[in-house]
Each structure stands twice: as C-alpha cells, then as structure tokens.
Write a structure and sequence with these properties.
Two copies of one chain form a homodimer. With about 210 residues, the first copy, chain A, is an alpha+beta fold. In chain A, about 40% of the residues lie in helices and about 15% in strands. Chain A has helices at about 10-20, 35-45, 65-80, 85-95, 130-150, 160-170, 195, and strands at about 55-60, 105-115, 150-155, 175-185, 210. The longest helix of chain A is centred in the middle third of the chain and has 19 residues, at about 65-80. The interface between A and B is large, with 105 and 105 residues.
C-alpha cells in the first residue's frame, strides 16, 4: 500500500499554515456552522494517540450561564496574574488582550480521561502523561484544520482548572487539558502578538538544539 | 494584514496528511540529509507556545553507545510491560513491533525546560503544564512536516524517562517529553497498526462529545 505523495507546492502551503496559525483572542461575531464545527471535531480524532487510546473528551459549552462562570474564572485569575508583575511588565501585561471569551461564538473545553480502558495501557506504563499528550495532538490537529478554513482558535490557560471542572460538572476522572475559543479572527498576522508587542522575541533553533 | 486563504484542494490534502500520518516503527535504511533534518526542526519552532516561551529542547542522539543504552532501556521496559498482560493480550503484545530504535537513521530526544525565563510565565501560572503542552505542539508540527516529505516518525514512550535523562546527561531542570525515531517508512497505511492488528478499534466522535 502506498500513500499520497505531497509535492513542494503543498509543503509551501503547509508551512504557510504553520506560519499563519495564531493564538486568536479577538473574534468577529460571525457564527461557525454546526456542520463545520463537527467536521473540525471529527478531524481532531485523526490525531495520534498512545495505544490508540483516543482519550480526548470534548465539551462544547453553549449555556451562557456556564460561559459567564468561565469568564469570571478568567477575570479573577488574570487579575491575580497581573499582580505578579511589576513596573514595565505590569503595564505591558495590563494592556494585553489574553482571551476572546467575551465574544467568541464557540467555547470548547477539552479533557483527558486518564482512566480510559481503550488501548489497554499500551505505551503508557512508564510515562502515563502520554495520554494527556495525545489530547494535545488532537487539539493541534483541530487548530490547524480550523485555520485552513479561516477559523481562529485561542487557548485560554489563565483559569483555575479545578473550578472549570466543577462549573462544567464533568466526571471526576476527567482532567482539564485546555479551554478554547473558536471563531473568525478579527485580524490575521504571521507574527505572534506577544512578539509584536515586545513581550517575548522569537529565538533561533541554535538555542534549542544539542547534538550528542 | 490579510493572511493566505486556503482552498478546498489544500484542505483535502491536509486531511489526507492527517489520515496518512502514522506512528512509524519500521524504517528503511535510507538516511535523512542534515539539510532536511534542520528544516524539520526549524519548522517545529513555528508551533505555538504559551507566552511565546519556546520551551522545547531538541537533542539529536548520534553516538551509538548512547543509542544502544536507549535501546537497552526500551527492551527492559517493553519486557516489563509484556509481563503486565495475560493470555491473548500477552500473545498479541509480544507480536507487536513497538519501536524502530534498531534501524531508524535518526534518534531525537525532546525535552521541556519548565524553568525557562522566556515568556515571563505568561499563561502558565495556574496551569504550569502548558509549557510541556507547547513542546507537544512542536513535536506534532515536526511530525506533520516530516510526513509531508515522506518521512515517518515513531514515538517511543516505553522507556524509563529518568534513565534517559541520565544517559543523555541533560540539565536536571529539563524533563523528557518524548523520544523519537525518524526515517523513511518501510510501509505506508491510512489505518493505525494497532487497529489493523485488533488491539484497539477506532471510536466515533459521538463517544467523545458532550454539549452543555
């Protein structure tokens, strides 16, 4: 069996997708159709998972009282984070827009079921964290598929994860991996906002690579 | 600023890439050029990272004594894992080829530097695990870019991670995220081997999705 061969033109577009995929915090009000959303979630399940354990659990949060509770969680933790910075960093941090929770048409919480029986534990004996890593792979797959449809995703990690689990009432054995906003982005850019605003520069591969 | 628009043809190819990306455990002996390898590592750094912290640390393991130590680590842990299974599962497990450590032309260990100063802790206060998640995103980016060049990647998690850190002598604050084999795959398939061999079936999105 021989798989598809990808050509130089595809690779250029793929690299362009990587370059233009952003963490999006400002969304237009346009809705995402249910059909598109289900397509993206289906594509996400093409991600690799350890032992084929498929430990991803997706929760679409549509109820506005639940959404408001998540926003309140974010506001509280973002204020606490701001108080950790001083001087110029504090001023810069206060100016950053770090979530699109207010306006994003789609809220998606993603969990890992670390106790799932699927895969019979294969590959997860000495490094059980690989189940969580599999969920990250599904999120990234969804993220790229979304951007290829012109849809942005924003990862909100400035949250108390335990409170999110309580707010959403998910099974106790599920662990929050991330909370995500999806929608059409208000702007596009090929440079991360934190780099453009002088928070953190991009570094060179030489600084990350060791050869033994 | 307006980014690239991706068309239906690109999306079909992208989904085909997701569908044909495999965890590869059987490699041909063909080498990967240094130029290609550096291209893939560079592309990996286009991945998102929390606070733009870029906490990925890549170690190419070329020394054969180090590689042999990693293989020995795998053999020991794989034998221990086998002993956890009984009856039919044990027979199936024993027949699986779970790593290409013997023949893969490239060994790549990937670590997270959880103490890196880059990003000034932004987004990692309540969920510090997002730094590790950022490294997973870079690995997946490399994985997809590799497959788009016809190169396979295999994730080896059946290892004692602490012993890998000692073997490779990396800084104590680095934590092993994964150990990877890269090379041209001996075969291609659009269905995971664990599904084809009856270890674990693919499940449907309905089993993973909750709407609140």
């Amino acid at each position: 069996m021989t798989g598809p061969q990808f050509d130089e033109k595809f690779r250029e577009q793929l690299y362009s997708l990587f370059q233009w995929r952003r963490d999006v915090r400002s969304f237009r009000s346009d809705l995402i159709s249910t059909e598109t959303l289900l397509e993206l979630l289906n594509v996400a399940t093409l991600a690799p998972s350890v032992g084929n354990s498929q430990p991803w659990r997706f929760v679409l949060v549509e109820d506005d009282r639940l959404r408001e509770s998540v926003r309140e969680n974010f506001r509280r933790e973002n204020q606490a984070a701001l108080e950790d910075y001083e001087n110029e960093d504090a001023q810069k941090y206060a100016r950053l827009k770090l979530s699109g929770l207010e306006e994003a048409p789609v809220h998606l919480a993603v969990f890992v079921d670390e106790c799932s029986k699927e895969g019979k534990g294969l590959g997860a004996r000495t490094m059980p964290e690989v189940k969580t890593y599999s969920v990250i792979l599904s999120i990234h797959t969804l993220w790229l598929a979304a951007r290829a449809r012109g849809i942005g995703l924003g990862w909100v990690s400035i949250l108390d994860p335990q409170k999110i689990q309580e707010t959403l009432g998910v099974p106790a054995r599920w662990k929050l991996v991330g909370y995500f906003c999806l929608g059409y982005p208000a702007e596009e850019n090929d440079v991360p906002e934190l780099e453009r605003l002088g928070w953190q520069d991009r570094k060179c591969i030489d600084e990350f690579l060791t050869i033994l």
